[in-house]
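**User:**
Everyone, produce one record:

**Assistant:**
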Amino acid sequence: MIRFGPSGNSEKFYEDGHKSSVEAPLWLNTMGLRAYEYSFSLGQFLSDEKCKIMYDEAQKYDIKISAHAPYYINFCNTTEQSKENNKKFLLNSAHCVKLMGGNHVVFHTGAQMKMTREEALNNVERNLKDFLEIFESNAEYDGVLLCPETMGKYSQVGNPTEVYHICTYSKRLVPTLDFGHINCLMQGGLKTKQDYKDILQQGIDILGPERMQNFHIHFAKIKFNEKGEIAHQTLSDVDVGPNFEPMIEALIEMGLEPDIISESKGTQAIDAKKMNDYYTKIIDF
């Protein structure tokens, strides 16, 4: 079963009178949604007590939790301060998501800055492998998967091929395919079911079908220019791509069941429900 849910709390969540994320599992359950991504994007982490409340609520209402690690992570950067920040942000994210009962932590690999692409990728490999030695040797994080995300700007490390290759470093790494970002890199070229299948098949070819059963998806329509991503939109923005229907059809035909997190601007829960309803209609047909 594919689970759908929002990244963070949408505008309607607050319009309905809710104030705290611990209220999200019940609210999402009433909408027929089964996933929720907690964002630590600005480096603000939850207390253990609040994480345990989230765990109880998620278990009660059958909501699968994931987390997005802070945006400040950059494995391209070789400074000791950057390495320490990467360690702190990812380990804190893994600690919280496990307490909440989840097992996926999404992170951005980093920015190329003034390096060549080869230099940036070499730094990512070296720095990430050093971090993995710490992460994998600590039983506290057993069961947690780290999920490098495909990015939407050419200046960022993280096209699909790069993300798949990065995931070969460890079985604890699985990809987050952000198809809105990928469409930006393709300059609007992500259109058909076969386009989605080609990207998914590349992951299967590189990582194997078993590894691709655990991968993660972000989805939003996103405006772009010649440099890549500009801004997230909603599914109602008909002039912006990509469309989610061929993605869902491709996943069903390939037998893949990732969690799909909506990152629409302000309407992420409503748009997650739109995708969920389309998926349910197909599998029940």
Remarks:
- The longest helix spans residues 117-137.
- Residues 94 and 259 are 18 Å apart (CA to CA).
